[in-house]
Amino acid sequence: MEQEKKKRLIEYLVYFVIAALITLAVFAIKGFFTDSLAVNLQILADGFVVSGLMILGFAGMMFISGEGGLIGVSYVLRNVILAFIPLGRLKYEVYAKYRERKMKELKESRDACPFIVGLIFLSVGILFTFIWYLKFYR
User: 66-86 burial string, b = 16+ CB within 10 Å, else e?
Assistant: First the structure.
């Protein structure tokens, strides 16, 4: 049980660090601390919203992939690659059998780490946007 908690904590930490790096990259690109307080608040909001949306998008793609939603795309790409390999057509597989094989290989992972971290960063970004709106927009 202790090992599982440690593993989960490391997963959250990794996603948090990735989101923080994305946030810092947005800060650097937009020139944080170079303008007035209002502009800096907008940059803060942009950084957290962008990283939150990117992590949430990644979580959505993980969910879609885990449900088998991208099996058709992988089937097409596999057959395109096999078309250019000599004797690659010998490995041709009907889509129904390919899908059945891939569905058996799918992991039963319901990892909520990127979803939760993405929501946290998005919430912080929305909070900064709300503060900017109340203080400077009106």
Answer: eeeeebeeebeeebeeeeeee
